[in-house]
Structure prediction request, 217 residues.
Amino acid sequence: MLTARNVTKNYSNLQVLRGVDISVSKGEIVTIVGSSGAGKSTLLHILGTLDSPSGGDISINGVQTSTLQGRRLADFRNRHIGFIFQFHHLLPEFNALENVSIPGYIAGAKKSAVKERAEYLLETLGLKDRMDHRPKELSGGEQQRVAVARALINSPAVIMADEPTGNLDSRNARELHQLFLQLRDQFNQTFIIVTHNEELATLSDRQLVMKDGKIVS
Prediction:
């Protein structure tokens, strides 16, 4: 489903990624671990088309992402890749339902269909009674679930998560771990997760260890 071959990334004279190869199958949860500065987040951002590699090839569902630019790249990213970050990045002026719906509206889907799917996702994630609440009225765990629903709204091929439990307490972190497993089983959803959380890493289908810009195991 996703393949990357010999991915490199340089910032001036600093080489951050040194020829990374990765292959992820549909419905697989893959975690990327390693010390700070190993290149984990840089790799995730490149796989998610938020940044461009200095070299190498990346394919998602058979599409070479390097062939896409500008509006075509943004449209592909919105439709095929979902993102979850440590800080939820919800828009404070919108309620939970509206925050989840935004990527669907951007994709040009019918408003009625987007609203129906957003309601379904929020209910599935245990937020049926919180749809009309704005972010400031939600707990940290609830905000992260809204972010998960937003990432799922367009039925993406893959969800990229960068330290998704980094801003949660241990109870909410464990609940989010179980949620990822539920979504994999229920929707056959693919996840690539950068994390320092050992529990989340061990619950994944496969764990990749990065060191000095390479995957070493």
Notes: Residues 2-215 form a domain with the Rossmann fold fold (CATH 3.40.50.300). The mean pLDDT is 92. The longest helix spans residues 170-187.
